[in-house]
Amino acid sequence: MKRSWVRTAALFGCAFLSACSGSAIDRGQSGSIPERKEIVFYSNRTDRTIGLGKAEQTLIDRYMKENPQIQITVRTIAPNSQYQSKIKLLQAAHRLPDLFVSSSDSTFLDPLVRSGDVQALGPEVLDGFGFPDDSLAAFTRGDRLYGVPRTRSFLALYYNRDLFKKYGAKVPRTEEELLSAGKLFEAKGLVPIAADGRGADTFKRLFNTMIERVSGTNKTLAEANEGSIAFTDSQIQTAAEHLQRWVKEGLFGDDFLNQDYGSARTLFGQGKAAMYLQGNWEADIDGDENFDPGIRSSIGIVNIPSLSGGQGKAEDIYSWYGEGILVFKDSPVKEEALVFLKWMFRQDNWAALTADDGLSLPIQPAAESDSQAAEGIRSDLTRIQMEAIAGAPPVWTPNQSNELEAARNVLVEQFVSLRLTPQQFVNELDRLGWDITTIRRLSQIS
């Protein structure tokens, strides 16, 4: 998950805590009081005053207050691509932090598991915590659980309410309404939808969502992954045709392939794009002080529209369990880290806090809340959650090999750059299930 681009220079910026001199790398040089145990926690949430960064910090501060013998030192890195790169470097050196945020995607999690550097969690760690089985499956490899899932994610469109009102555009709930709004904004010199076109994740998730919008079920992609149906299934090809139509009709502008996460976010935050394609984890964008207050106050969020001729509804949510927290197996404070991790995910802690603030779809059942009514983006998220029908299948399949995931990413990049037709795209996807030579060839394409 990605955080504010404006903080990318602070790759090792200490987040919010005053006692930040220790780390998993320089432990013993921190000058901390000897009788206190230090847990080093790495996060991809740089801003500790908004969003999930604030939720992390609130709980960390509360835990240290209740347990004065524990010092939790936070290190933050953003954006997420740089965070993941740093974790991979630390893993290669066998110097991982005691606790750290991890993606459930096989390209990130699987190498950590194969190296033996992350601690397998016993069933007693989460016993009675209310986690559904499919959320735990996202962080399970073989028959062992390696992380605690913390977010249920889905793709959405953030939109500038003021721009929609100014130009008389309808907030889209159908594909035709979206295309109509796109033409209107394009004529006014605005990018209809700002999107990260330099990586595969955003468009891969959009394609996954479109499969659901075509078929009306969240099982179609899972069936293709399992081999029950082919990737050349008519519903999957139809989803590909819709996605390429959006690209060809200019919904993402002419330069989206050169935009990364930061530039797309900035385009929207500066009022140069009417919409912004990103996950619900960006719901704290209205708290980014680098954006004009008028724009921040006008941001809303809407689900991915239904598709013409499709069976899926705009109310459906195609979601996945994207982030969790892992423990370094050889941490000198592993037991203390596990105790904190279990405390953090008590239902009256993480679930209650994030649900109250409208930060994410709750995974665990949250306790009753007496928080005030949400406004703005939070109000929209509450409505989306209340309307939601669909369940939470994974992106592709969480246990797919790292090699296969990388090859599929390459195919998505080729497809949105119009180097593959929808037919060629689904044909290549289907071949990946059987042809390891194709997998290796595609995974080496830069």
From TrEMBL:
Domain of life: Bacteria
Record bears the keyword Amino-acid biosynthesis: no
Keyword Signal among record annotations: yes
Keywords, comma-separated and alphabetical: Cell membrane, Lipoprotein, Membrane, Palmitate, Signal
Signal peptide bounds: 1-24
Full protein name: Extracellular solute-binding protein
